[in-house]
Design a protein that fits this description.
It contains 2 helices and 14 strands. The protein is α+β, with helices and mostly antiparallel strands. It has one domain (26-169). The strands form 3 sheets. The protein has an 8-stranded antiparallel β-barrel with strand order 2-5-8-12-11-10-13-14. A 3-stranded antiparallel β-sheet has the order 1-6-7, with no helix packed on it. The termini are far apart. The relative contact order is 0.17.
């Protein structure tokens, strides 16, 4: 049975719990705008280059100007121009293109995915940006298969793969 005293304590606890969530000091996850920005933030790991630009008809054009690996970071709550690394054991690979030649990835996530499983795939982070999360530091080569289908769930047939995107450490 809920007594008035228990109800009062529960209300105080829930109120404190909700207020502490409102004042969370973590900011949004960040993505460096280029390699120099990544280096300034102290999260840069290494640079990659694309083995071959990927152009398939009008719907897919992936020709990045810069590709790099960086530590996952968040904006500093005291100074948003600064970054703080919350978890040094997770990484993100970032591909950026020039504004004049943005990525053309129409149908991404609906008709096809760049990657075959949820541990290694690329998604859009803007007109000129693709990003992928990595649970561990990768080796010298990253290989992304372009697969027909809406989600990189790990289940695919060989005939579902229609292209590959290879990134090689510089």
């Amino acid at each position: 049975m809920i007594t008035p005293n228990l109800l009062k304590r529960l209300t105080v606890f829930l109120g404190f719990f909700m207020l502490s969530g409102c004042f969370e000091k973590d900011r949004g996850r960040g993505i460096s705008i280029n390699i120099n920005d990544s280096k300034k933030r102290g999260v840069f790991i290494t640079e990659y280059e694309i083995k071959q630009k990927l152009i398939l008809g009008d719907s897919i054009r992936i020709s990045p100007s810069e590709v790099w690996l960086e530590k996952v970071w968040r904006y500093d709550p005291e100074d948003p121009s600064n970054s703080i690394s919350k978890n040094n054991n997770t990484y993100q690979v970032v591909l950026t293109a020039e504004k004049e030649t943005p990525f053309s990835v129409s149908g991404l996530s609906f008709k096809y995915t760049i990657g075959v499983n949820s541990n290694q795939y690329l998604r859009k982070c803007g007109e000129t940006c693709l990003i992928g999360d990595l649970a561990e530091k990768p080796g010298d080569t990253l290989l992304y298969k372009l697969k027909k289908g809406a989600y990189p769930n790990g289940d695919y047939k060989k005939e579902d793969i229609f292209a590959e995107l290879m990134l090689i450490k510089k």
